[in-house]
Write a structure and sequence with these properties.
The strands form four sheets. Strands 1-5-10-11-12-13 form a six-stranded mixed sheet, with helices on both faces. A three-stranded antiparallel sheet has the order 2-3-4. The chain has a two-stranded antiparallel sheet with strand order 6-7. The protein is built from ten helices and 13 strands. Helix 2 packs across helix 3 and helix 3 packs across helix 9. Helix content is 31%, strand content 18%. The longest helix has 12 residues. A hairpin with a 4-residue loop joins strand 2 and strand 3.
Length: 261
């Protein structure tokens, strides 16, 4: 079997989770020497893949207080420690813009307002969630992307019940102090990649994952969503990227627990 045939065979069994990993990794392309803060298994695999391939200067942590110098498998202990990053120094990096976080979202609207705090009227919510946590500071001070493992009308809503992360409309209303470093890069879901590269800074579909239709994404979104007729597919992983994902970064296949096939 030729190398070309082998590559084609490997690509024929690319899972939805692996397309999501590729899409998450692409969010950090070109970031240079900044701290990648992925939240979730698939974004963590994506950040490590970016570090091992096209973004070698990305800084990674052990998820607690250490900057790591190697790229261990998900769940494994790093063997190379490059520095100590306690909470106060981590916050300094956040406020200095030297960080690109990929957060989750319980609700997200077309402007990029994120809710991870509560569902329902905040005076008497029907569900209490995490609280606003670092949402406001993250979105105002450093590049922010979102990871949504299940694209649905429960997440993509016309109006969030409470604002945790700040969207483009609210940042603009707050003025230059809020817009200076405000930058929402990507929204990666199990169906598609979305961004805010529209004249009015509202969500549009940047690419569809293979096997997903535009109608499927629209049906799973709680507001009208722009999808161009010629919207591309999320790119295929290379054979080397698949090797890194499957045998180096996530040999246990934890990514498949986060994204349904």
């Amino acid at each position: 079997m030729s190398t070309q045939d082998a590559t084609a065979d490997e690509r024929s069994d690319v899972t939805r989770a692996e397309y999501c990993v590729i899409a998450c990794a692409e969010a950090w392309r070109g970031d240079g020497e900044i701290l990648a803060s992925p939240m979730g298994t698939v974004p963590s695999v994506g950040a490590r893949l970016a570090r091992l391939t096209f973004s070698p200067d990305l800084l990674l942590t052990d998820g607690e207080a250490l900057v790591i110098g190697d790229v261990p498998a998900i769940g494994a202990t790093p063997e190379v420690i490059e520095g100590w990053l306690p909470y106060r120094r981590h916050l300094s990096m956040v406020t200095g813009g030297k960080r690109h976080v990929m957060m989750g979202a319980s609700q997200l609207d077309r402007h990029g307002n994120q809710n991870i705090s509560c569902i329902g009227d905040w005076k008497q919510p029907t569900r209490q969630l995490l609280g606003v946590r670092g949402g406001p500071v993250n979105t105002i001070n450093n590049p922010t992307s979102y990871w949504v493992p299940r694209h649905s009308t429960r997440v993509f809503v016309d109006k969030v019940d409470m604002v945790s992360g700040v969207g483009y409309d609210r940042a603009a209303a707050a003025g230059p102090s809020a817009t200076r470093f405000h930058q929402l890069r990507r929204v990666v879901t199990d169906l598609a990649v979305l961004d805010f590269e529209t004249p009015d800074r509202t969500l549009r579909v940047r690419s569809l994952h293979p096997g997903v239709s535009a109608a499927q994404v629209r049906e799973a979104t709680g507001f009208p969503l722009a999808v161009a007729d010629d919207v591309p597919r999320t790119r295929e992983p290379s054979a080397e990227e698949l090797r890194l994902i499957r045998t180096v970064i996530d040999p246990a296949g934890l990514r498949d627990r986060e994204v349904r096939t």
